[in-house]
Design goal:
Shape: globular
Distance between the termini: 24 Å
Radius of gyration: 13 Å
Helix content: 10-25%
Number of helices: 1
Largest sheet: 6 strands, antiparallel
Length: 75
C-alpha cells in the first residue's frame, strides 16, 4: 500500500452509547469519555480493543479520522 493510502489511518476505538473512551484519569482511576471520536484512545490491535471494551462494558468501532467514517465491528 502506498504511504498516502487513507486506509492506513483506520483505527479501533471504544464506544459506550454516544461517548468514546479517551483514557484513565491519573491518580483516580476514573475513565474519561468524550462525545467526539477524534478524541478517542485508539489502537490497531484487535485483542487490546476487545479487552478494553469488555472491561468498560463498551463496543468496539472502526474509525478513520481522515474521512470521519465510523463503523461498529464485532471482534
Amino acid at each position: 500500500m502506498p504511504k498516502d493510502d487513507i486506509r492506513l489511518y483506520t483505527r479501533l476505538i471504544v464506544r459506550n452509547g454516544n461517548e468514546y473512551l479517551v483514557g484513565v484519569i491519573v491518580g483516580t482511576g476514573q475513565l474519561r469519555w468524550s462525545q467526539s471520536p477524534w478524541d478517542a484512545w485508539w489502537t490497531r490491535t484487535r485483542i487490546n480493543a476487545r479487552m478494553v471494551a469488555e472491561k468498560t462494558g463498551s463496543d468496539v468501532c472502526l474509525f478513520n479520522p481522515v474521512t470521519g467514517d465510523l463503523r461498529s465491528v464485532c471482534i
